């Protein structure tokens, strides 16, 4: 993380200047988040839409429901590992590095009054009634995405464990919990899959400003100009604090951009295909 | 016993007729075969008039003279005899079976329509070459009967001309467990057509006397499946059926009539769920909401289907202590797949209905909550995304299509 920043001061000569937004650790976690999420969706959706032909085909593609079930649990373990590593990092920043900025303030994911204000301003901008809000490090929709994962982890993860080990949990939980677990696991999955593969994809990649793809989650880097345009509050804040230069970094390597394009295209394609299949199921 | 009686009666008849024949100097079998033994003998219209002497001699009627059946020639001495002979009456000797046949669906079809291709005696038994059904060369030998019936019931042409509603049952039968056992494994204990339908007394399906009339089906199947007959008769289905409930299932409602599959096959185990669901529409709807129902719907059978919990033939209402899903036996039933299932485990409702507030209050409210959540999240972000898209398009137009830079 620190090494990536200091590289910038020495070796950048060609290409526009870049700001480091996501360090290696976060990029690594997000790539496994993507992998496990796609895997969970691909192995789980056939059950939810079991009466559809495509669901049968998909279940057979995995090698039958037993294999799909094993893979689903494997992807779940990967996702839980990602989640745990992220929590571990937060706890380290909080208790070891004594970095309280993650609890409140512009660099924090915690929803704050400014998020409500920025959302209202954003709506005004949608209608051309005001300027684009001066976003800082995390916008309100990014915070929603982030906390949606927390909520989803609790709901889907919890119900998933109940359904994974019903005999163990039924030793102390009433039977109706398993009926509820079955329902919310599916419905929350539908919410998560639908949200990520439409809203999150749009916000991140498919809206006109980002189309066809924003590589920042793969390369970790955003062009300095784009950064200043998108997050003017953060830009001003860093400049004022004299911390701007410390955030500068090298341009993304060709390799990183290639991997990002391939992984991103694959993920968006698979995700949108699943959305089409879900919509087809709803309207048939 | 009956066979002995018939033979004796035939012998008596022979002795009684013999002096009469001798007296009248009627035609002997040899006289007839002098012409009809010629394999090339044909009627003016091309029909063969040949009788194979060997086959006739080997037939069960080989000891009779031709004129014993073709009685209108019994007094004839001049040859050639008149072309048009009377139809042979089998009832002369076989009065019992012919009486039964006269009431049958085949006879009814023939009576109603002289051109009907419906079977008469000779269509199943042959004419000059009739052998006892115990003879493996007989058309009515146990293993040969399906081919004999299939001559019509497997022929698209005859099925159409005879208006046989059920269609080509022969092709279904040969692929069924019964048909395979008989035609491929050569099992004489496997049922042929007559074992279920009877032979001479085959009646319409709707006839209460028919072997395959709905209420009679269990008894018909039970002639072989005796153990199951007893189990089924006691069950909620069996009791309703014998009480005359027209919606109660008989064996064939689940197993089909001619297409009966091995109970272990994947197709059968998946198909029978749908069969249960044709009557138990609510139960199958709620079953499909569970993991069990989803996995079977995907085409896999490793999870519980209806019969795995409810049994197949010993189905009772849950309040009946014999029920596999009644309070006393539910734990042991679930334990067949979930060995560590306990009292809490079996409180899981495998037919929970998320729309039913009384039966599943927690599930109902969880469902309402989830739908509201989905509605508001997608509703809000749907609008948000749409407006955002329009906003950016507008912004780009204003900037002249360039990628926005600060």
Give an overview in words.
- The complex is a heterodimer of chains A (284) and B (406).
- Chain A has helices at 2-11, 24-48, 53-61, 65-95, 113-126, 140-164, 166-169, 176-206, 216-219, 224-230, 232-241, 244-247, 254-282, and strands at 18-20, 221-223, 248-249.
- With 284 residues, chain A is mainly α.
- Chain A has a single domain, classed as Fumarate Reductase Cytochrome B subunit.
- The termini of chain A are far apart.
- Mean pLDDT of chain A is 92; it is low at 6-13.
- With 406 residues, chain B is an all-alpha fold.
- Among the domains of chain B are: 1-88, no CATH class; 261-347, no CATH class.
- Chain B is built from 22 helices and no strands.
- Chain B is elongated and about 115 Å long.
- The chains are: A mainly alpha (284), B mainly alpha (406).
- At the A-B interface, helix 2, helix 3, helix 5, helix 7 and helix 8 of A face helix 19 and helix 22 of B.
Summarize the main sheet of chain A: 3 strands, antiparallel
Q: Which CATH class of chain A is shown?
A: Mainly Alpha
Oligomer kind:
heterodimer
Helices and strands of chain A, in order, run as: HEHHHHHHHHEHHHEH
CATH homologous superfamily heading of chain A: Transmembrane di-heme cytochromes, Chain C
Strand order of the largest sheet of chain A: 2-1-3
């Amino acid at each position: 993380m620190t090494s990536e920043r200091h590289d910038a001061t020495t070796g950048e000569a060609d290409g526009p200047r870049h700001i480091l937004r996501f360090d290696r650790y976060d990029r690594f976690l997000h790539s496994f988040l993507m992998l496990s999420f796609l895997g969970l969706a691909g192995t789980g959706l056939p059950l939810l839409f079991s009466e559809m032909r495509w669901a049968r085909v998909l279940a057979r593609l995995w090698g039958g429901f037993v294999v799909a079930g094993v893979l689903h649990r494997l992807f779940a373990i990967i996702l839980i590992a990602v989640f745990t590593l992220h929590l571990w990092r937060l706890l380290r920043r909080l208790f070891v590095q004594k970095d309280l900025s993650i609890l409140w303030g512009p660099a924090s994911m915690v929803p704050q009054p400014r998020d409500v204000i920025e959302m209202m301003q954003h709506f005004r901008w949608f209608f051309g009634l005001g300027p684009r809000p001066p976003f800082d490090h995390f916008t309100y929709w990014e915070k929603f995405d982030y906390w949606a994962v927390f909520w989803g982890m609790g709901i889907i993860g919890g119900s998933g464990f109940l359904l994974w080990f019903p005999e163990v949990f039924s030793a102390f939980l009433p039977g109706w919990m398993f009926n509820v677990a079955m329902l919310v696991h599916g419905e929350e999955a539908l919410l998560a899959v639908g949200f990520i593969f439409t809203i999150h994809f749009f916000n991140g990649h498919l809206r006109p400003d980002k189309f066809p793809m924003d590589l920042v989650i793969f390369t970790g880097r955003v062009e300095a100009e784009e950064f200043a345009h998108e997050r003017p509050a953060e830009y001003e804040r860093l400049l004022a604090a004299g911390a701007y230069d410390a955030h500068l970094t090298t341009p993304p390597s060709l390799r990183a951009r290639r991997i990002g394009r391939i992984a991103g295209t694959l993920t968006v394609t698979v995700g949108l295909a699943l959305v089409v299949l879900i919509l087809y199921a709803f309207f048939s | 016993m009956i066979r002995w009686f018939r033979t004796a009666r035939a012998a008596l008849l022979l002795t009684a007729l013999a002096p009469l024949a001798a007296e009248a100097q009627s035609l002997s079998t040899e006289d007839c075969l002098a012409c009809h033994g010629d394999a090339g003998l044909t009627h003016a219209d091309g029909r063969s008039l040949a009788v194979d002497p060997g086959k006739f001699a080997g037939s069960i009627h080989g000891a009779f003279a031709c004129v014993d059946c073709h009685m209108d020639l019994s007094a004839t001495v001049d040859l050639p005899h008149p072309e048009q002979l009377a139809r042979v009456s089998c009832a002369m000797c076989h009065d019992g079976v012919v009486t039964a046949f006269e009431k049958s669906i085949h006879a009814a079809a023939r009576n109603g329509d002289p051109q009907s291709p419906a079977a008469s005696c000779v269509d199943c038994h042959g004419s000059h070459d009739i052998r006892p059904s115990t003879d493996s060369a007989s058309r009515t030998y146990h293993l040969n009967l399906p081919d004999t019936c299939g001559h019509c019931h497997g022929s698209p042409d005859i099925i159409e001309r005879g208006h046989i509603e059920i269609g080509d049952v022969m092709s279904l039968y040969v692929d069924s467990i019964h048909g395979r056992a008989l035609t491929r494994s050569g099992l004489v204990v496997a049922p042929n057509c007559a074992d279920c339908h009877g032979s001479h007394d085959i009646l319409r399906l709707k006839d209460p006397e028919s072997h395959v009339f709905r209420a009679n089906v269990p008894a018909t199947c039970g002639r072989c499946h005796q153990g199951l007959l007893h189990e089924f008769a006691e069950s909620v289905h069996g009791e309703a059926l014998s009480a005359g409930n027209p919606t109660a299932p008989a064996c064939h409602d689940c197993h089909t009539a001619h297409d009966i599959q091995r109970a272990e096959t994947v197709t059968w185990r998946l198909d029978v769920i749908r069969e249960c669901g044709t009557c138990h529409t609510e139960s199958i709807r709620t079953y499909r909401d569970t993991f069990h129902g989803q996995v079977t719907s995907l085409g896999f059978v490793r999870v519980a289907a209806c019969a795995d919990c409810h049994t197949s033939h010993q189905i009772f209402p849950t309040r009946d202590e014999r029920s596999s899903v009644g309070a006393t036996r539910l734990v042991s039933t679930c334990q067949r797949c979930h060995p560590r299932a306990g009292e809490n485990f079996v409180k899981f409702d495998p037919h929970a209905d998320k729309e039913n507030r009384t039966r599943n209050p927690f599930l109902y409210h969880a469902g309402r909550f989830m739908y509201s959540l989905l509605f508001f999240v997608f509703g809000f972000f749907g609008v948000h995304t749409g407006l955002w898209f329009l906003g950016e398009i507008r912004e780009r137009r204003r900037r002249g299509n360039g990628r926005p830079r600060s």
